[in-house]
Structures are given as C-alpha cells and as structure tokens.
Amino acid sequence: MDEIYMQTxxxxxxxxxxxxxxxxxxxxxxxxxxxALGRDDKVSVQMILGMxxxxxxxxxxxxxxxxxxxxxxxxELADWLSEALEGKLPVTEDPYGKEGAVILRIAANxxxxxxxxxxxxxxxxxxLSGKDSFYTDK
Length: 138
Hints:
This protein is an all-alpha fold. It has four helices and no strands. The chain has helices at residues 3-38, 42-71, 75-85, 97-129. Helix 1 (3-38) packs antiparallel against helix 2 (42-71) and helix 1 runs parallel beside helix 4. The chain is elongated, with a radius of gyration of 18 Å. The protein starts with a helix and ends in a 9-residue tail after the last helix. The mean pLDDT is 90.
C-alpha cells in the first residue's frame, strides 16, 4: 500500500480515537445522569445532559472529518472504511496492514461503548417518559 494511504489511515485512526474518547465520555455522563435521575436531582440531570450534548457535537465533527477523508480516497479503500465503521468486517481482518487493524479495533471499541450507552439511555428514557419514550416499540 502506498505511503500516502498509510498516513491517511493513521490520521483517520487519530480522528476515530478522538471519537471513541468522546463516546466513552458520553457513556460516563449517561450513567451519571441516570444516577442523578435516581436521586431526583433534576438540576444535575439538566447540567449533565448539556455536557453530553457538547460531546455529541464533538462526535459530529469527527464524523464530518472522517467523511472528508473518505471522499478523497480511492473507491476500494473508501468502501473498506465504510464497512469497517459499520461493523461489517471482523476485527481480525487487516488488508490495510497495521493501520487498518488499528481502525478496525477502534471502530469495534466505539460500537461497544455506544451499545452500552444505549442500554443506560433506554432505561433512563423509559423512566422519564414511560409510554411516550423515544424507545417505545424499538
């Protein structure tokens, strides 16, 4: 693989690592909000949800940057990246060397944190909204 693509993949890995860090912070904040909700501490819940929104903005920025990189890639590499980020590739598959393996690992870790966050968020949302919850019938 060309040196330029290896460098591109490493830059992507840095962006994806930043996204993972933001997602981990969202998970922590979601758990903290659920605990505050359990104490009926509405002020803390609102503050924490605001902080969580800021992290979500950072994730959107990361996603935008990944999209810009992907748009400039050869189609085969762009397709691989899309599949990697969607979890369609096994973590052990690394056709793009060490750099590709790093991206696969970060993507898998990010999905794992996102799934754990959704469990806590669903529980919290159902408690707040009951039958009007965003998660009803989902």
